[in-house]
Amino acid sequence: MPRIAIIGAGITGVTSAYALSNLGYAVTVYDRQRYPAMETSYANGGQLSASNAEVWNSTATIIKGLRWMLRKNAPLLLNPRFSWHKYSWLAQFMAQIPNYRDNTIATTRMAIEARRHLFDMAEAEGIDFDLERRGILHIYHDADSFKAAHRANALLQAGGLDRYAVTADEARAIEPAMQTGCHGGFYTPSDATGDIHKFTRGLAQACERRGVTFVHDADIDNIQRHDRPYVLDIRRDGGTQRERHEADAIVVCAGAASRKFARLLGDSINIYPVKGYSISVHLDDADSQGAAPRVSLLDEAAKIVTSRLGDRFRVAGTAEFNGFNMDIRAERVQPLIDWTRKHFPNISTTRVVPWCGLRPMTPNMMPRVGPGKRPGVFYNTGHGHLGWTLSAATAQVLAQSVRAALPAPSTAYRG
C-alpha cells in the first residue's frame, strides 16, 4: 500500500488526509504543534465566503495600500524594511493584475464547489463546528465604494454566485442587530460561517478512525530526496529525540512554511506570510448574546469580517506584510475592539481574546495544488485568506492528482 506523508495538520492538511484516506492510501500527517489546527487554522474570521473570492491583484488595491502605509492602524500594513522575499513577491503580485478577472471567477467557482464538499464531510462525520448558514452581508458606507462593488459583483456572479445588492433598510432587515447605518450592501444567502478549529479537530478525529496516523511535536529538519522512498529527518520533544520516517509520496500542506519544504524537494513556490488578526469576544451575559449579530458581516471600508460562533463573537481583519513576525500588537488589535464597540455598543468587551496567524499567500492569490517536479511530490497550499473557504475542494483536486500518479489501492474506507 502506498505510504503518503502529509506535512501540516491545518485545514488543508487534514482535508487532504481525509480525501486520500477515502481512496485507501496509508496516510501519516506530521505537524510541529501538539494538536491539529493550532496555527493559521486556529482562530480566523470564520467565514466560508464565496462572496470574498475577489483576488487582491488590482490597481485599486495598490493605491489603497500606498495610502495606508503611514497609518499604524490601517487595514493593510507593509513593513518597508527591505526583504528580497517580500519585494520579489510584491513584484510578482503586481504582474498578476491582468489576471484579476479570470482568477476571481475561477476562485468563485472553486469556493462554491468547496462548500458542498465541506458540508458533506461535516454531515458524514457528525462534526459540530458552530455552523451558521445565514449568509454573508457586505456593507458599504459611501456611494463610490458601493459603485465599485457592483463591478466586482459582476465577476462573482459570472462564477455562479447568487449575490445581490440591498438597500440600507434591507441590510438592517437582514441583520437587525446592526446599530449603525450604511449606504448599501451586497448579500450572499448561500455563504456560511463556522469555527475552523473545531471543524479541523473533528475531521482529524474522523481521519484517525479511518486509520490515518498523526505525528505531532514533529519538526522536519530535512527530506532526503535522492530516490524513493523519501526519508524525513524529524526532531521531536524539543530536539531531544530524532527519528527517520519513510514515505512513498510527500504532500506539502504547511501553510506559510511550504516555501521552505518546496526548496527541500526541488521546487520553487513563492508563498509569503501575510499576518491577520482576530479577536474572540466572549458573550458572557444575555444582553451581549442578544446584541451580537447572527448574520456574518464584512465592512468594506474597515476590511473587517465577523462571525457568530456559539457564545463567541469573532471579529477579524487586517493584512500585515512583516515576514514571519508573530507578535500580537496592541495597535493592530485595538481597531477590532473599537469597531465592535462602535457598531454593537451593547456587546460587553470585558473578555476579549486576541490572536494572529500567517496567511500563506501566492502572488496570484490562487492555491498551488498538484504535483511537483519530482515523482511522488505534491502540494496543496497557498490558499491565502481563503483556506477555510477553499480547502474542501482543493483536497479533492489533490487526491485525484495523487491517484493519477500513484495508483490507489483497490479498496477504500467504507465506514
From TrEMBL:
Keyword DNA-binding carried by entry: no
Tagged with keyword Oxidoreductase: yes
FAD dependent oxidoreductase domain span: 3-400
Pfam families: DAO (PF01266)
GO CC field: cytoplasm; plasma membrane
Gene Ontology BP annotations: D-alanine catabolic process
InterPro entries: FAD-dep_OxRdtase, FAD/NAD-bd_sf
Stated family: Belongs to the DadA oxidoreductase family.
Protein name: D-amino acid dehydrogenase
Organism field: Achromobacter spanius
